[in-house]
Amino acid sequence: MSFYLNISPEVQTALRQKKAVVALESTVISHGLPYPQNLELAQKMEQTVRENGAVPATIAILAGKLCVGLSEEQIQQLATAQDVVKVSRRDIGWVLASKRAGATTVASTMLIAHWAGIGVFATGGIGGVHRGTHWDISADLPELAQTPVTVVCAGAKAILDLPATMEWLETHGVPVVGYGTDELPAFYSRSSGLKLQIRAEDALEVAEIVRTQRKLGLPAGTLVTVPVPATDALPVERMDAIIEAAVQLANAQGVVGKDVTPFLLSHIATATAGESIRANVALLLNNAATAAKIAIALETPQKLDNPRNWGLVV
Ligand code: PSU
Ligand code: MN
User: Fold this and answer.
1) Which of 66, 64, 61 minimizes the C-alpha distance to 99?
2) Atom of ligand 1 nearest to the CA of 128
3) Could you give the CA distance from residue 246 to residue 240 in angstroms, rounded to a whole number?
4) Domain holding 110: CATH number?
5) Does 295 share its domain with 180?
6) Ligand 1: which residue has its CA nearest to atom 1?
């Protein structure tokens, strides 16, 4: 696969020098947010990772290569071109072969990050089990079960069936860590009412969990869930009604497969007059900063010697 990998000089140097690197996805740029917020977001994500002391590596598939670390022009292309394919795990082969432009989801970004030797990845919300249609399960979930990358997110997207998503992750051995919270965050909202078993207070505690998972040789990634900043959170009851209406509309219009998520996100944006986009951007930047701290904690091991029974909410 090294034939297909195209790692930017900056990211290569950082990896060689064992500096902290944070992978970033590109589906949120091409299919998750409208232009020009998507372009601005992509640039701000990279800037936020840098401000927090790590090197950003935005990932996409371009001209037959798995690109890790993109140029300004490449990010611009992903933000504006109409023909960018949404690439999940199953699409990596054919998009490389056909030399199409591809924006990577959580699943494919995790896999390519792992191939490139990057262990930490910041995103908005992962895919999961869809509401009503329980057979629609995002490839993000099996990827978390088999690829040992730490994914920092604001919970699963609120458009999903969160209890079913949590059950799936439990069955397949994926630890879900609450970052300063006992509850699974619900993307646009800070809480979902779903209790988490694992809580970490800071980046050092997350790093200790991840390091232990790695030492054991466990195949799964670690899902770190960070609540959206309070100032940008949207009330859960209001969002629930809007999401339910969008899901009904998607079903009525026969939207299926990989089009479901972009369809719902754009309807929610319209229904909230853009407020959902503001929350989405705020949580993405917050996650980028948190991921940078975790990447740094992983590269500079420090012993945790506090007596607190950390990591366990019993
Ligand atoms: N979260 C967002 N916007 C997005 C996504 C997540 O706020 O666009 C993307 C991610 O790339 C995620 C994908 O991996 O949606 C999941 O799509 P699906 O359910 O089709 O697997
Ligand atoms: Mn799906």
Assistant:
1) 64
2) 19
3) 10
4) 3.40.1790.10
5) yes
6) 125
Q: Per residue in 43-99, pLDDT tens?
A: 999 999 999 999 999 999 999 999 999 999 999 999 999 999 999 999 999 999 999
Active-site annotation holds for 25: yes
C-alpha 122 chain-centroid distance: 5
Cβ–ligand 1 contact at 279 (below 6 Å):
no
Catalytic residue check, 157: yes
Domain end residue (candidates: 65, 99, 118): 118
Q: Which of 157, 183, 205, 258 is catalytic?
A: 157
Tens-place pLDDT, residues 272-310: 999 999 999 999 999 999 999 999 999 986 655 554 445
Q: Which ligand is nearest to the CA of 265?
A: 1
Evaluate: CB of 128 within 6 angstroms of ligand 1: no
Is the pTM value of this prediction over 0.90?
A: yes
**Secondary structure class of 152 (helix, strand, coil):** strand
DSSP 273: T
Among the three residues 118, 141, 159, which one is the final residue of a domain in this structure? 118
Q: For residues 237 and 69, give the distance between their C-alpha atoms in angstroms, rounded to a whole number.
A: 39
Q: Is the CB of 143 under 6 A from ligand 1?
A: no
Domain extent, residue 68, equals: 1-118
